[in-house]
Design goal:
This protein has 248 residues and is α+β, with helices and mostly antiparallel strands. Helix content is 55%, strand content 12%. The chain has three domains: 93 residues; 88 residues, Alpha-Beta Plaits (2-Layer Sandwich); 43 residues, no CATH class. The strands form two sheets. A four-stranded antiparallel β-sheet has the order 2-3-1-4.
C-alpha cells in the first residue's frame, strides 16, 4: 500500500441507480456516471443496461397486452354465456307456447263435447214466477211426442241465458242427462211444424271456436248445396256427401 494509507477501491462506494430508476434516460445517465467514476468499467456496460431496459419495457408491454387479452376474453365469455342463456330461454318459451296451445286445444275439445248435451230454445216468452223448466219440457214433448213420458226424466237443468232485458225474452238452455234423447229432439226439431208455427226455434249450443269454424266452412257448405250435394254441419264440423271438409 503506498504511503501506508488505506486501500482505496477503484469503484465508487455507491451508484446513483435505484430499482425505480430503470427508464432509458436514467440508465444512460447512470452509465455515464459509472464511466466517469470508474474508467476501468468496460464500455459495453451501457449496451447491457440499455438491453436490460429494452427487455424490461418489452415485458411491460407484453404484460399490458396480456391484461388486454384477458379483459377481452372475459367480455367474450360473458357474451357467450348471455347468448346461451337467451337460447335456453327461447327454447323454454317455445316449449311453453306449445304446451299452452295443446292445453287450449284440449280445453276447446272438452268444451265442445260438454255442449253437445245441450240445446238452446229461442222465442219462449219470459214472465215473472215462470216455471221455465216445465214449459221447456212441454215444448220438447210437442217436438218429439213419442218420448213424451220420458222427457221429464232426461231433461236435467234448464235456465235462461244472460241478464234480463226489458221487452225481450232471453233464450233458454236445456241440458239433457241422456245424449240419445237430445239428438232425437235435435233431428225432430229441423222439421217441426209446431216450432215454426209458434215462432220457436231450437239450436245447438256451440262454443266460440265451433262458431268460428262454422263461419269459415259456411261458403263451402253453401256452394255444395247449390250444386245439389248433401252438405251439413255437425257441431263445429262440416260434411259434404259424407266426407268431412275443412276450412281453406
Amino acid at each position: 500500500m503506498p504511503n501506508g494509507g488505506p486501500e482505496q477501491s477503484e469503484f465508487p462506494s455507491s451508484l446513483p441507480l435505484s430499482p425505480a430508476a430503470s427508464s432509458p434516460v436514467a440508465i444512460s445517465s447512470a452509465a455515464n456516471h459509472v464511466r466517469s467514476e470508474c474508467p476501468a468499467v468496460p464500455d459495453n456496460l451501457t449496451t447491457m443496461l440499455s438491453e436490460f431496459s429494452a427487455l424490461r419495457q418489452l415485458l411491460n408491454e407484453r404484460a399490458d397486452a396480456m391484461e388486454t387479452l384477458v379483459n377481452q376474453n372475459s367480455v367474450v365469455i360473458a357474451e357467450l354465456k348471455a347468448e346461451e342463456r337467451v337460447e335456453e330461454l327461447e327454447t323454454q318459451t317455445t316449449a311453453s307456447k306449445k304446451t299452452t296451445a295443446d292445453l287450449g286445444s284440449s280445453i276447446s275439445l272438452l268444451e265442445s263435447y260438454s255442449r253437445r248435451w245441450n240445446l238452446i230454445l229461442h222465442g219462449l216468452e219470459e214472465r215473472d214466477r215462470q216455471d221455465v223448466r216445465q214449459e221447456a219440457i212441454q215444448v220438447l214433448q210437442r217436438v218429439l211426442p213419442e218420448a213424451r213420458d220420458k222427457l221429464p226424466d232426461v231433461v236435467d237443468t234448464v235456465h235462461r241465458l244472460g241478464a234480463r232485458r226489458p221487452n225481450s225474452s232471453r233464450s233458454v238452455i236445456i241440458q239433457f242427462s241422456l245424449r240419445l234423447y237430445r239428438d232425437a229432439i235435435w233431428r225432430a226439431a229441423k222439421q217441426s211444424t209446431f216450432l215454426s208455427s209458434n215462432n220457436l226455434k231450437l239450436t245447438e249450443d256451440l262454443s266460440s271456436a265451433d262458431r268460428e269454424r262454422r263461419r269459415q266452412l259456411w261458403p263451402l257448405v253453401e256452394s255444395a248445396r247449390k250444386n245439389n250435394k248433401l252438405a251439413f254441419f255437425k257441431g263445429g264440423r262440416a260434411f259434404v256427401d259424407g266426407t268431412e271438409i275443412f276450412p281453406p
